[in-house]
Amino acid sequence: MGMPSTATRRVSLGLVLVAAVCLLFGDFEISTHDPWQALGRLFMGLIQPDLSRVDFLGEALMRTVAFAFVGVGVGAAAGMLLALLFRHLWVRTFCAFIRAIHELFWALIFLQSFGLHPITGVLAIAIPYAGTFAKVYAEILDESDPQPGRTLPKSTGRLSALVYTRISLAWPHLVSYTAYRLECGLRSSAVIGFVGMPTLGFHLAGASAQGHYGTVGALLLLFYALIATLRLWVRPRLLPIYLAVSPFLLGTGLPIMWSNVTRFFTRDIVPAPLRNGEGLEGLWPWLGDLLLDQALPGIWNTLLLTQIALVVTGILAMLLFPLISHHFTGRHFTGRVRGTLGHGLLVVMRSTPEYLLAFILLQLWGPSMLPAVVALALHNAAIIAHLVGRRSNEITLRQDAPGGIDRYAFEVAPRVYGPFLALLFYRWEIIMRETAILGILGIATLGFHVDSAIQEIRFDRAMVLIVITALLNIGVDILARHLRARLRLRHTASCEP
Amino acid sequence: MTRLALQNAVADYGEGRVLGPLSLALAPGERVALVGRSGAGKSTLLSVMYDQWRDRGAALMPQELGLVPTLSVFHNVYMGRLDRHPWWRNLLTLMRPRRRDVEEISALLERLGIDDKRWAPSGELSGGQRQRVAAARVIHQGGGLLLADEPVSALDGPLSEVILTALTEAYPTVVLAMHDVELALHYCTRVIGIRDGSIAVDEPSQRLSAHDLLTLY
Question: Which of B66, B70, B80 sits opposite A153 (nearest CB)?
Answer without folding.
Answer: B80
